[in-house]
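Hi team,

Filling in the usual template for the complex we talked about on Friday. All components are listed, including any nucleic acid strands or ligand strings, so the model treats them as one assembly.

SUBMITTER: L.P.
PURPOSE: interface mapping
COMPONENTS: three
RESIDUES: 1114
SEQUENCES:
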Amino acid sequence: MVTVSTTTHTAQDLTAQARDVLGVSRLTNHALTSWLHGLPGVDQVGCEARAASLGTRSVKTTSKAWAIDTAIGMIDLTTLEGSDTVGKVRSLCAKALVPDPLDPTTPRPAAICVYGDMVATAKAALGDSGIHVAAVATAFPSGRASMPVKLADTRDAVEAGADEIDMVIDRGAFLAGDYLTVFNQIAEVKQACGTAHLKVIMETGELVTYDNVRRASYLSMLAGGDFIKTSTGKVQPAATLPVTLIMLEAVRDWRDLTGSQVGVKPAGGIKTTKDAIKYLVMVSEIAGDDWLTPEWFRFGASSLLNDLILQRQKLATGAYSGADYVTID
Amino acid sequence: MPKFEYAPAPESRAIVTIEKSYGLFIDGAFTRPKATFPTVNPADETVLAEVSQAGPKDVDKAVAAARRAYEGVWGRMSGAERGKYLFRIARILQERAREFAVLETLDNGKPIKETRDVDVPVAAAHFFYHAGWADKLEYAGLSASGADVPRPHGVVGQVIPWNFPLLMLAWKIAPALATGNTVVLKPAETTPLSALLFAEVCQQAELPAGVVNIITGDGRTGQALVEHPDVDKIAFTGSTDVGKAIARSIAGTSKKATLELGGKAANIVFDDAPLDQAVEGIVNGIFFNQGQVCCAGSRLLVQENVHDQVVAKLKRRLGTLRVGDPMDKNSDLGAINSRAQLDRITSLVEAGVAEGAERWSPECTLPTKGYWFPPTVLTGVSQTHRVATEEIFGPVLSVLTFRTPQEAVAKANNSAYGLSAGVWTEKGSRILWMADQLKAGVVWANTFNRFDPTSPFGGYKESGYGREGGRHGLEAYVTTAPSTLTGAAR
Amino acid sequence: MSRLDVRKTYKLYIGGKFPRSESGRSYEVVSATGEFLANAAMGSRKDVRDAVVAARAALPGWSGATAYNRGQVLYRVAEVLEGRRAQFVDEVAASEGLTARAAGAVVDAAIDRVVWYSGWTDKIAQVLGNLNPVAGPFFNVSAPEPTGVVGVLAPQASSLLGLVSVVAPVIASGNTAVVVSSAARPLPAVTFSEVLATSDVPGGVVNIVTAQTAEVATWLAAHRDVNAIDLTGVAGAEGVDWAALEAEAAGNLKRVYRPALADGAPVEPDWNADPGLGRIRAFVETKTVWHPKGL
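RESULT (copied from the run log):
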């Protein structure tokens, strides 16, 4: 069961808070630029070496069992295809409700993640299970639409019952140095979310450098994002360990700075238990225990769930399992 | 208790067979063990094996075997053939990598992840790199074109330390053999086992008898080897005191020497550094191999305006270091190599505290048996404190501050040593300026403790002389001119 | 009526100045045939000490100068030497007992040697340094740097050619030098110091102490602010035990350039042979710098 805060924020509130954090009387693009470019740089080689070294942790037996169940509970089980149908979404919801029919002790994922038009379907299928419905919005995945369209997209999903909104930032504006636009868009979407949780997708594959990832993370948090999320899954590279490392450092340091906690969601390309465990090791050793819950860490994934179930079966039975023993949906 | 506690993940020691006792490896065969002394696992103080104390007669035999091999086989062999032997050795090291990693961890106390990911693969890489040089020495730029091809010295006596037993063996033996010298090598008293296993590798590679001889023993054995009249060149890695004694003992002879000695490296962090990576570099700089590294970044020089921030980040990071069973794949720090070393670390840290430094360690439970010291940070250290000038050779970081680049350089260079230094800043021109100013043989900028066979390593000032690795490392093992006519560097 | 000539006072050269020995001593310098030539200052251990201080002070400037600049300065030394050719021919002939013709050849060789080294200054790093292809995303470069303050026992016999052959390679790479001149044949060294003083070599880069080698060599070898020592001048020096000097040098792990040996005894090298890179190589330290390559 995932709990979320129910505070609503107006864009004005968020701007006022941001002025506070920056210590400026007016939130200008110049002020944002100075602040973001004043963050310590990231050395790519060192960052990747650290991520790789965390990837060598050996997680076995009881800790593996714990990690598998924790990871399952953190999944945003996702389908984001043009070919999605009501049938497909219902089927995915059924999978979320009963991940492993052979073992009822298997935990459920945190949420189902769909396009906005499928929110009602998912909501109906999941009922009061406690599994959240997350909707991608704001002209996902490119984000290339006018602000009214993005806000309408968001409100539409919220009205259909979405518990969480996964928005995309305007990467074009970000790369052009127009941080104020990015800030305002996030803040306005946050306002449109009402009580729904806002995940801010930075599409790190398009930001390219870790310096940009760090700046985008801070900008997203400053503008009111409840979560920062790596990718749409439609751009390569999607989630990577070093990108997630930068984001985990950002949320950790943000909490030191402001006292408020923000979640992290790597999405796209995380397919195996081995990968998922590396991420959990990273959460544990970079951000700390406080982030080791579905409230503060999610995996955006689809095939990952079945791999986790296969490994779970191996731990339970002692024998390696196979594709015929997990359900596809 | 953290939420995500890693279950024990011990590497199996079944892969390695340790004999009850070992003789010396002389002339291609092991002698019968005699005058043995124990080598212990520093993690639990159990005896791993008994090894032989080589006496002066044994040294004679080993040097004589090396001389015969040099004159009879190795010195006459073509470079191409020599190179192929080195390639063989490199391959065998890779094939038996896990075995070496486990043995090294048992004998040294360092974590298995380091022996597995650093010591053994880099040792193999050194043999690969030097294998290729064996038939290309005339291209190494060591003699003027048209002059004689560089020639080996003959018999090389090599004495190596306990901190990287196999890796230091590779640093010594690979270039010596590639250039056509033969070797008598003495591993450290407390870590002889990987060298003895390497002797087996020489046998598997069918290296001609006497080309490599391994003699075990304490400082007396090393001294006998260094002072042996039929040794042409000394290669030593170890303490500056012993290095000076060696330099004295070869004075007035024609023996050559390379000495890789102590260090007290400054790791300099500017306020515009990539701070998270700098923290990793600080950690890697002083806690890699429990800080028992001659080039360890044992002095953190941090710009005063980011001191608190860096120290806070560092302390948080140290809270995640895992100290314990070296055989556990998740251990970041293992045991200190010996009781004597542990005592030295302990007394120096106590001296630091007595001089006014503030001592801090993360919470960690140390095993009750074995030689253990927690990762330790000393803040409020001044240049005049012993912990800022003396090599501690343990997991102890002394933190000092500076205000300007000039002050950082002055403090960094204010040492009798000059082995390595670190610089952290995102400003390129400052890095290059700093690199020019620092009196150190290796400058790591925005990284630390990186090693590669192609990259020369060695110090300024009392950190020794000569370089190991790269084109420059070959220089120490060859002669290019008849020294009787021109004089020569030692 | 012939004019009474004005004699030169032969003094030390320390920090760009020409002091007398602090000890107030001098010694009689005679020609190869035993005739009185001059009273030279007899340098003491304290003069050596002062010279080391001057050399240390000059080091940052000289080692920090561009290699091009050092080359220009060394070439200027050759130019000024050439201008004083006649004087050196006289002094070398008198000191070494050579005919004017033979002395002229020696002086020419000395000038050419300085020219040779002047051309080396900006090639040393290119020839002795390199990029290292490490197995990882790092820029890794090794370059030679001067060792620091170098003590030089100049050859006893070859008073000018030998002197420039040991001094030039030391300073070409950016070291500064404390030179103990030939004890018996110091006059060309003193005149050479006048050349240095008038040819843009910054004060303190080369310091020349005329002295009894046996008296001061130990102090130089043991001095802890000296980074390297060239023992060439032990050959033919009275009462000097080079093994003892090398042992003293171990106190701070000085780099030691050993004398040439024949049958185990030090001999002076053949100064007409191709000097090679050995003397440059002996007084440089290889520094290796790593930096990550990344976005």
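MY TAKE: Chain A has one domain: 11-314. Chain A has a mean pLDDT of 96.

Thanks, L.
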